[in-house]
Amino acid sequence: MNEQQQTIEQRVGATLLQQPRQISIAGKTYSVAPPTIATLILASEAISLLPQEYLDEEHIVEETLRIAKDCRVLGDILAILILGAKGLTEERTTEERTFFGLRRRRTVRKIDRKRELADELLETLAPRDLSRLISELLRDLQLGDFFGATTSLLEVNLIRATREVGTETTAHGRSSEA
After folding, report:
1. What's the pLDDT tens digit per position in 23-37?
2. Which DSSP category does 4 fall into?
3. Beta pairing partners, 111
């Protein structure tokens, strides 16, 4: 069943049961990792790397082409949202037989799945599809709950008692009687 055809109750039920969400991109199906704080933090770090510029609407084509070279991070953001914090790297063990098959040698390689997926997404997705997919995945990241938790903790931090400092201040090196 398509996500647009699902009722709110079905989506909430799937989230509560932590059923992996499936998305299809360019003929491949990916399981989207469940939302975690670590994924939100990594996505936030990647988003902060986007160019901090406002585009002039009168020259939108020129402005967009000027900053496009700095937007490779869009693939990273989408890959982080799909793979989740735990799925960004993978260790693969390979076994080789050497010396006429008498010896075995195992090698462990660390694979950067984020880079692989980010490159694949940038090469296959149209800009409209990339934008739509990022928006959908950010919506499912439970940002409201994270915002509520951090806001309440910040308020607790602001209202805690602070120690009082003496009421009289004196400039450094001068006597208060002068």
Report:
1. 888 888 888 888 888
2. G
3. 90
* Chain centroid to CA 68: 20
Pairing of the two strands 89-98 and 103-112: antiparallel
- Is residue 86 in some structural domain? yes
Q: Dump pLDDT digits (tens) for 81-134.
A: 999 999 898 888 888 877 777 778 888 889 999 999 999 999 999 989 999 999
Name the E strands within 27-118: 28-32, 89-98, 103-112
Per the domain annotation, does 41 fall within a domain?
A: yes
Whole-model pTM: value is 0.67
User: How many distinct structural domains can be found in the chain?
Assistant: 1
Residues 70 and 32: beta-carbon distance below 8 Å:
no
Residue 52 in any domain: the answer is: yes
CB-count exposure of residue 150 (10 Å: 0-12, 13-18, 19+): exposed
**What is the span of the domain harbouring residue 61?**
34-157
101 assigned to some structural domain: yes
